Task: structure prediction
Amino acid sequence: MSTPSFGNQESVRRWFDSRAGLWGPGSSDDGLLDWLEQFCTKVERQPNELIDECLRAATDSDSLVLRTRARRRYIDAIAQFELDNASRDAANVVRSFFIHNGVAMNPTVLR
Amino acid sequence: MEVKSVIGTRRSIRFFEPWREVEREKIQAILEATYRAPRMLETDFLRIVVMYRDRLSEEELATLQTPTTTAQLDMAPVVLIFYAESEAFEASKLEANHQALMDLGVLNPSHGWTKERYASSVGPYLQGLADDADRVPISFGRDAGGPTVSREVMRLARTAIGVAQTFALLAAVDEGLSAQLSAINTTTVKAMMGIPDSWIPSSPMLLGYHGESRAAGGQRPREAFEEDFFELRYGHPFYREPAVVEHLRECDMIQPGAPFPWRMTEVRALARKFGLPD
Result:
């Protein structure tokens, strides 16, 4: 089970709030958190750290700037996570976490 | 399709059927439409390169993507990449070009066009546009620092591309296809396709058969008509006659607006269908 501190991190709350706003209440559950926690364990990062690595504060405004190398690194890590678990759904949970925190992330389309 | 219906049916489609190829004759029909788009100052600025997704390697496709275009580029089997040849203006400002248009009865004395006028004022004016010291780079970002073009020629070139893109979008809808003006890594495309330094890049058009419903959730919201269109002077809105609106509704130019009540269900189902995150 997930620890309260993990699920209460700002980036996780933002993810759940954004999903609920888009898809409606009940769109988030512990299953999502479990996959994210597995990914975090694999890359040895906390959720907030993942986002902080990908977005830095702009020096001349309140906006955030994408760090492309960090984003690329996690795109590759998620692709490997997908292979390790043989699950597109599991990887998409992690991608969803990044996307709802402002880091665009698409896998290749299934054809 | 009737032109009003084509205009009303067009959407920026983001889900394409990735497995369904676009017939070559339909691509040609779209190119033929852009070939007949209005030109700026009688200049043949327009250049289009047709790219086929399935002829690219996975690595090549990946390098074309920007952070928000991955899914669309993966799905669209065809990409039309629009450019303007900046050097085309050199040819268009030649006297021979204008003389040919006068011989065809396009440029006529009724509107002040004569050989003498070209020599005394038009030619020097066009040369001034080309030589203007107010210049901008042809390419931006990583390609900046290359050739430049006068700001006025850049404006004409970009207008020409925009008009051609509009013709292409409407022609695509008329062919039963769907399209979207998107983004692409122009630096990579330039190297991959041998694009000349003098070509001004623009937004590519993704092309394919729609993978989402063609209505794509309904016509997108716009500002109030009266905020954008004026009569006689700025601030005096153009009166929007309800009977005209109703006629255009009957002609399919005005269609039900977004959001459709089932749109988010459709979007989520499409994401699952194509293995995309939600």
